[in-house]
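Re-run with default settings, no changes from the original entry. Doing this only to confirm the output is reproducible before filing.
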Amino acid sequence: MPSQRQESLADSVHQDRERLAAIVDSSEDAIIGKTLDGIIISWNKAAERIFGYTADEIVGRPVTTLAPPGMAEDMLNILNRIRRGERIEYYETKRRRKDGQVIDVALTVSPIRDASGRVVGASKIARDITQRKAAEVERARLLESERQARSTAEAALARHRDIEQKLTMLVNASGVLLGSLEASQVYDQTILLAKQMVAADAYAVWRADPSLSEWRIAASEGLSEEYRRQSVFLAQPGQSFGDSCIAIEDVAEDPLTSRRKDLYAAEGIRCFLAAPMRIYGRNSGAVTIYFRTVHSFSDTERRLVTALANLAASAVSSAELYEQQNRMREAAEASARRARFLARASGLLGASLDYAGTLRSVAKLAVPEFADWCVVDMVEPDGRVERLAMEHRDPEKLAAAWRMRERYPRHINMPHDAAEILRKGASVLQSEVTDEALVRAAQDQEHLAMLRAAGIRSVIVAPMKARGRTFGAVTFVMAESGRIYGPEDLTVAEQLAERAALAIDNSRLFAEAERERADAQAAAQALRRSNEELEQFAYVSSHDLQEPLRNIASYAQLLARRYQGKLDRDADEFLGYLIDGARRMSVLIQDLLSYSRQVRMGAAAFSPVSSEEALETALRNLHRAIQDSAAEIRRDPLPTVWGHSMQLAQVFQNLISNAIKYSGGKTPKVHVSAQVLDGEAVFRVSDQGIGIDPRYHDRIFGLFKRLHGRNVPGTGIGLATCKKIVEQHGGRIWVESKAGEGAAFYFSVPLCGK
């Protein structure tokens, strides 16, 4: 039996093993055991975390499972050293995780020996150093970037020190350069600055014409007069010089200067540096320095000449903009004068329908605001050109002009410029009136002498056209003031002539409309008198027919009662025709009187009307007809409208009566409803009777228009009466129906307050 001491020793060894296993599992480094054949036999938790394999997945597999592509040989070399009993201290290499990622690791590998000291395996400690390696690489990159930046900064500082003094000088001189208001002063100052900044043999400032095709020297120093005179550079079509300096270090060899090498040779120029001047967004100038000996242009020289060219370009732009602003200010003042004149003239043209007086006022306004002379000519129907107005500041000259006009009248068919303008209706601008133009306008030598004496300098003739018709022309003349008309003035003249033509056209249209209105009023009055007479005649006739008709009906009925059956059958039939005709004539007269009353009543005495009450009145009047026919009348709530209560009751009564009469032998079913639309009440009276063919929807509202024979009672006046009443209320009436499908009559009446 083992002794107590042996048992204690065994417990101690077991505890040590457990402690060692806990240390291995809690280690941050991967601790891996493997045989001498490279088979993994132990795998701690850190190994699982670093390599991604669990112990169950990796134990029993070769250690080369962790080798990246191409590095299996490295693992075999390590095993060979372990077999020889060597220990490997801190060896950096790469391994592959389960997910395929290759990581940097630091290894310490020790041989495992048995009790006899024989190597039976290996214990490897692996640490993930991927982040540390990445940090080292980044640190090396930053150190290299810092070194390069320091080197670049030192080189730049050296260059800046070289040009700092000259740039300071350029800045100090910029005030003088930019303050120059003339381009020639800018050129001279640029040459002076170039001499101070770069020591060369000659200097020049070049400028191009607006097309950029021809370049000339604007200012220079150190160049001969012969060179300046001959040195005109013609750019090839599409040729561009870019935005950077052009450095030609050998004018005899460079292709850019091959066309001018003889000129350079005669002047002794060997090389030059040209910096473009960008003016108004285009390279339209250059600052150039010349050398008569071989010279290699430094970066400092390029930068200095470029800076000077940029400053000179700004100065030239400022000087030319100043001149342009002066021109624009003068143009703006002229534009304001034109706009003011056009606005005032337009106000005159729109203020009155008396176009003749208005055009005379416009002619007065034009002088001297827009012209020295203003003439308005009108074309008469016979082709004569009548002068409506002529104005000038000098009354004596104006009187002489009127006398000349009387002596030399115009006709639209005459072969002269002014007449041709009226015939063609096209404006004419003569900015500079030549003597040849005066000759064409003159009718004889004396007339020509008068025109020449007037001192005419510039002329605009604008025809007054509207709706394809030329009414005349407005002529503006510049003479003693010396002013010249341009395209902007022509635009103003054309706008004025157009508005004048509209004023003439509107005036004549208004006069025609007034005449037509007067004729229409006279015709309306005559028609109204005729209608009144007809209405009076219808009313009186209908009223006067009542008494004789009653006598006919009474005696016919008396004959029928007394002699019914005592005469032959034909006599009984004839008496029936007589009684029926008298009855129908009586109904017709009653309807005609009703229609006449509606016409005579008009829209008088309108007030708020309850549609419910108007419908109720109609139903009371139709009580016997409704009862005899067993008609079913349905009604929805109806609104209050603006109108005449009895007239609206008449409309309801006529429409419901028709629905009962034209029920087609069935029990009449009538539905009365209404809805409010856009301030109106739209009423609907529908039935299920015989319907109306759509071809007759408009016809049925005419007086005495019936679609059925005598087998259906009616006079053809009821719907005409409805139409008259509804129209007097400011509404309309219509029907929606098809034959055999019933009918729905609609009529609209304004709501109360609308």
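Residues 602-750 form a domain with the Heat Shock Protein 90 fold (CATH 3.30.565.10). The CA atoms of residues 195 and 592 lie 117 Å apart.
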